[in-house]
Design brief:
Structural class: mainly alpha
Distance between the termini: 105 Å
Largest sheet: 3 strands, antiparallel
Shape: elongated
Order of helices and strands: EEEEHHHEEEHHHHHHH
Helix content: 40-55%
Strand order of the largest sheet: 6-5-7
CATH superfamily of the largest domain: Rhomboid-like
Length: 306
């Protein structure tokens, strides 16, 4: 009499009889664990392992391809939330706007910076250690009833961010795009600090000018039809000139220069495994330069050297 053959079961479901093996690891798998492969079937674990070993597609600038502009959505959301905070509490602008050096009294009055200053006043801004203003000011906008633009200030900025930001994020990838946005905002704030340290400024325009510069650099690198891009840049530069009399042209120019430099590093870094390191090195180098310039300027203000 012949002996009865041993019953084989799925390695993940021991109670389920199985007669099919994974073509990769040779373990028995049941129908619930089978995944179609080029030849035969594979188990769930081998499919996951194979997916990890597949090289992920990248954009022309080294970023991961994504179809949803998550960072742009988040940045718009943060700007809108900050604006709502301004509407609920007007002191938010005075507390978080970009300001290099200013003076305030105990009753909430604000005065231009002067050194030395009387004991009845106290310093405010970066000279008082409020370094966060370098970035927080880029998320604030004019209240509805103030300034030349009022609520149009945030509407125009968010409209521009929505239109250009999605294009730039899709090409750069989320990490590079976020670094571009923050460095552009920081570049705008630092140029404001260097030129008009006692002027309070707010708005995402510096960061958006940086994204505009990125759009131009990317288009040239990709060999796109430049007619539409040139018209966009012409409008941006015209607005830069007009803004000299209406808004902070220093913030706009600083963002434009920083964004152009960062994107040039993204676009022209040599291809290969060292490309991310070169791109990161330029970003870190620019960050260090901006920090050094800010520290030197604030130190000079605090000692009355300027």
């Amino acid at each position: 009499m012949e002996s009865e053959s041993a019953v084989t079961t799925c390695y993940r479901h021991p109670k389920v009889e199985s007669h099919v093996r994974c073509t990769r690891c040779d373990r028995y798998i049941c129908p619930n664990c089978m995944r179609e492969a080029a030849v035969g079937h594979q188990c769930v674990e081998c499919v996951k392992e194979g997916a990890r070993s597949i090289r992920q597609a990248r954009t022309a600038f080294g970023g991961r391809i994504s179809t949803v502009p998550v960072v742009t959505y988040v940045l718009i959301g943060l700007n809108v939330l900050a604006y709502l905070a301004e509407l609920l509490r007007s002191s938010v602008v005075d507390r978080f706007a970009m300001l290099g050096a200013g003076l305030a009294d105990s009753e909430g009055g604000h005065y231009l910076w002067d050194f030395p200053y009387p004991s009845v006043l106290h310093a405010e801004g970066l000279v008082d250690g409020e370094w966060y203003r370098l970035l927080t000011g880029a998320f604030l906008h004019l209240p509805p009833t103030e300034g030349t633009f009022g609520i149009a200030h945030i509407v125009m900025n968010m409209f521009a961010l929505w239109n250009i930001g999605r294009i730039v994020e899709a090409q750069l990838g989320r990490v590079r795009y976020l670094a571009l946005y923050l460095l552009s905002a920081l570049g705008g704030s630092v140029l404001v600090l260097l030129i008009v340290p006692d002027e309070q400024t707010i708005g995402a325009s510096g960061a958006i000018f940086g994204i505009g510069a990125a759009y131009y650099v990317m288009a040239r690198r990709l060999g796109m039809d430049m007619s539409g891009v040139n018209r966009f840049m012409a409008g941006l530069l015209i607005w830069l000139l007009i803004s000299a009399g209406l808004t902070s042209w220093q913030g706009h120019l600083g963002g434009l220069l920083a964004g152009g430099l960062v994107t040039a590093a993204y676009a022209y870094a040599p291809r290969g495994p060292r490309r991310p390191l070169v791109q990161a090195a330029v970003c870190v180098g620019l960050l260090a330069l901006l920090v050094v310039l800010a520290v030197l300027k604030v130190s000079a203000l605090k000692t009355g050297a300027v």
